[in-house]
Design goal:
single chain, Ald_DH_CS_GLU, binds NADPH dihydro-nicotinamide-adenine-dinucleotide phosphate, six-stranded mixed beta sheet, alpha/beta, seven-stranded mixed beta sheet, globular, 23 strands
């Protein structure tokens, strides 16, 4: 346990309470009871008792309540975005964009859960026509959700909203950097669903998350770094608890020779520097076709140099939320410069805690930390490539595979399909994240499983298959009472049905 100080942004436990502070000013935002493993277990027990009631409400009952929750969030948007700004440091405008996406996801999940997960008849095979077949997706029970601080609403709600719509109850462990935002979201839910603790929160540091993994939840949805994701998986493996892992990224943007350069510049600056670059699907690497490289770089530097950094109302981005991350950003810039890279904008002087100003690095070797590791700061590496195909090769060399972007007038979708990642935006950046109809998640070190969309609903449900006899079997394969003659007929039927190559 650490003792109480008010170093900006550094959460502490003081007398059994988690103290959250503003990352720029150190202003205390709130105090939250730090949950012990016994507290976490008790929250999960309560959620389990609530699960039968929530599940029995059915799709219509849950839809109505989830839509009321989404309305409560929408109607108090100003309060929410002010809190996001104060506790996480993000400008209010960016908090509005984040919250809007989260609210849209709740509405979509509420309205589509029945069509995606509800009971349906499915066709039976010709070999077993005497049975009818039914499929439905049932809730797991209690889902544990562990969230990060960088998108403290959009990211956890991507799991919470879909898990609730699927009929689960949820115990949510917000990041130690953003407990007040987590509490605010849960309180709004409790106002519209006061009957039972369908959605509850437990507060604390990493140990609280570890306790949630071991608490007997029926599924654990984790969003955070790859390193912590591995610990979460190891803890969940002890009880064979299924895991959804939404982890880090090192997303690339490809700028083809025929790209709309102004559009590509705007997307690279926003995609790379929104939220001070603290975005799992933020653009960190840009690969630009030789023919347009110089023009792109010049416009990129001009645009990024105009960004305003600070806590003021007109700032484009704010502080680095987690003070420890500043060392990583500094190390990546220093390593890039030591290894022959140049700062076309910013550089080591741009690191002015708690802020980092826009930094654009060029001529950085492909094995430098700034190209290989997640930087999580307002930095971009920009690399000249002969053509977009080489860009795809380099983009795919990462061990991460979360999102990405392609700018091309003629080959956008074709290039997007070649990127080894879960999502790609064509002629935009990060546009997939707020799209409720599309699944969100990565490959490789970026994790597995999906939030959002129909796949995001299925992620929080278990398929239940039912077959029912509807007539006598002509060929009773599944019985010791079958005769040798019937077995011969089954063999003949297999050859008839499946014996042709096409
Ligand atoms: P961390 O991995 O540090 O923490 C994530 C969550 O896990 C926090 O709530 C944290 O608690 C908790 N935690 C820490 N240790 C443990 C443990 N041993 N067992 C269980 N839970 C634990 O990530 P950050 O919060 O720093 O978030 C940034 C990372 O998240 C980046 O890598 C980013 O790319 C990734 N991310 C991925 C997204 C995606 O959708 N793929 C979206 C957003 C972010 P505490 O904070 O209290 O330590």
């Amino acid at each position: 346990m650490v003792t109480a100080t008010h170093t900006p942004g550094v959460p502490v436990i003081d007398d059994g309470r988690l103290v959250s502070t503003n990352p720029a000013t150190g202003e205390e935002i709130g105090r939250f009871p730090a949950a012990t493993p016994a507290d976490v277990a008790a929250a999960v027990r309560r959620a389990r008792q609530a699960a039968a009631w929530w599940s029995a409400l059915g799709f219509a009952g849950r839809r109505e309540r989830l839509l009321r929750w989404r309305a409560a969030l929408a109607n108090r948007l100003d309060e929410l975005t002010d809190l996001i700004h104060r506790e996480g440091g993000k400008p209010v405008a960016e908090a509005v964009v984040e919250s809007a996406g989260a609210i849209d996801h709740i509405a979509w999940a509420a309205k589509h859960a029945r069509s995606v997960l509800g009971p349906r008849r499915v066709r039976s095979s010709l070999m077993q026509l005497e049975y009818s077949s039914r499929l439905e997706y049932l809730p797991f029970g209690v889902v544990g959700v562990i969230g990060p601080w960088n998108y403290p609403v959009l990211t956890p709600v991507g799991s919470i909203g879909y898990a609730l719509a699927a009929g689960n109850t949820v115990v949510f462990k917000p990041s130690e950097y953003t407990p007040a935002i987590g509490q605010w979201i849960v309180e709004r839910f409790a106002e519209v669903v006061p009957e039972h603790p369908v959605l509850s929160a437990v507060y604390g540091i990493g140990e609280t998350g570890a306790a949630l993994c071991r608490s007997g939840v029926d599924k654990l949805a984790f969003t955070g770094s790859t390193a912590t994701g591995k610990k979460v998986m190891a803890a969940c493996a002890e009880t064979l608890t299924p895991v959804l892992a939404e982890c880090g990224g090192k997303d690339a943007m490809i700028v083809d020779a025929d790209a709309d350069l102004d559009g590509a510049v705007a997307a690279a600056v926003w995609g790379g520097m929104t939220n001070a670059g603290q975005t799992c699907v933020g653009i960190e690497r840009v690969y630009v076709a030789d023919r347009v490289y110089d023009a792109f770089l010049q416009r990129l530097v001009e645009r990024a140099a105009r960004l305003r950094v600070g806590m003021e109302d007109d700032a484009d981005f704010g502080p680095i939320t987690m003070p420890g991350q500043i060392d990583t950003i500094r190390r990546h810039i220093a390593d890039a410069l030591d290894r022959g890279g140049k700062a076309a904008l910013g550089g080591l002087d741009a690191v002015q805690p708690p802020y980092v100003r826009p930094t654009i690095l060029v001529d950085v070797p492909e094995d430098a930390a700034a190209v290989v590791e997640e930087t999580f700061g307002p930095t971009l590496t920009v690399t000249r490539v002969p053509d977009a195909d080489e860009a795809v090769r380099l983009a795919n060399a990462s061990r991460y595979g979360l999102g990405g972007a392609v700018f091309s007038r003629t080959r956008g979708v074709a290039l997007a399909r070649q990127l080894r990642s879960g999502m790609t935006s064509v002629n935009s950046a990060i546009s997939f994240a707020g799209m409720p109809t599309l699944p969100f998640g990565g490959v490789g070190d970026s994790g597995f499983g999906r939030i959002h969309g129909a796949d995001g609903l299925r992620e929080f449900a278990r398929p239940k298959a039912i077959t029912k006899r509807r007539m006598r079997s002509l060929l009773p394969a599944l019985s010791f009472d079958r005769t040798p003659k019937q077995v011969a007929q089954i063999a003949k039927a297999v050859k008839l049905l499946h014996g042709r190559p096409r």
